[in-house]
Design brief:
This is Cobalt transporter. It comes from Neotamlana nanhaiensis. Pfam families: DUF525. The protein contains no helices and nine strands. The protein is mainly beta. The model has no long low-confidence stretch (mean pLDDT 95).
Length: 128
Amino acid sequence: MVQQVTKGIKISVETNFEGSFYKNYKIQYAFGYTVTIENQSKDSVQLNARHWEILDALNNVEVVAGEGVIGKKPVIKPGESHTYTSGCLLSSPFGAMQGFYSMINFTTTKKFDVTIPTFKLSATFAVN
């Protein structure tokens, strides 16, 4: 698990290898990840958008950006958290993800970004 705190918002990420399959004659490696967003600040915040950079061992980079996470824009009160699970496909058994969430502080009405720490994706069969 990796964790990082930015402006009172703690991001924790756990990953798992889901398996591999062929798609259009190319092997794909499926990974799942669970993110917990914990509000350790004194203000309520809302997650409005996400920005991901997904890298694989073949130097491919995919950028994914959009509103919310899995169709939601959660409001997180002080001391509360929001957890969700998602996934990605890689063309190699190793990779990494990193990015940020765009949030708004309801007390100050200011927008701010929260860093998602870089986390590794590794197929279980390829790990020493």
